Amino acid sequence: MSIVHKATLTPNKQEIFGAWLATQTWCEGDLTRTIGSYRFDDPAGRVGIECVLLEVGDSVVHLPVSYREAPLEGAGDFLMATTDHSALGKRYVYDACADPVAIRALLAAALTGATQEPMDVYDQGRLVERRDTAVTAAGTGSWEPDAVPHLDGVTIRSHGADPHLEAGGFVVVVKRVVDGAEADGAESIEVAWPGGAGSLVGVRHL
């Protein structure tokens, strides 16, 4: 279950993502709208993990993001912004490709065949809505959850439209610009959204 708080963010997500994407050389065009997102949970319940699909110019952009209550050590170059969350206070918004908690969640989903978490909306501690999502995601693997390795960190081997990350003996490939090509990997996360579908995260052994 992915808990979403009924709250306001200042700046809001659209503003954060639009400003960050404008600084990325691999991204062309302006952010026009959010298509939807999918989430996987941090088992410890501390880090929010969201993969957002955005319409940017003539492209669809797949943007994994993590939300933290405190700075992630050593990841200053991957901080998108800080935002004031009306329910949770100050939040640090990161490019999740540098966040080991987020990458382990994506790795685990790809290897175990997990599906995205249902999105439960809470207001002042009370469940008020189970939100339908326009985006669905599911891993292709059949591993047991206990077999997924612990990650001490993530090594970024390439960064851009298709980041290649080394984590726990695996290479994780993220498709950020959806161009019809599939993310390379023996296992993957298959994502569907209105008007499209594809493998947007790929996983293979080193």
UniProtKB/TrEMBL annotation:
InterPro entries: Mak_N_cap (IPR040999). One of its GO terms (molecular function) is kinase activity. This is Maltokinase N-terminal cap domain-containing protein. Keywords: ATP-binding, Kinase, Nucleotide-binding, Transferase. Residues 20-99 form the Maltokinase N-terminal cap domain.
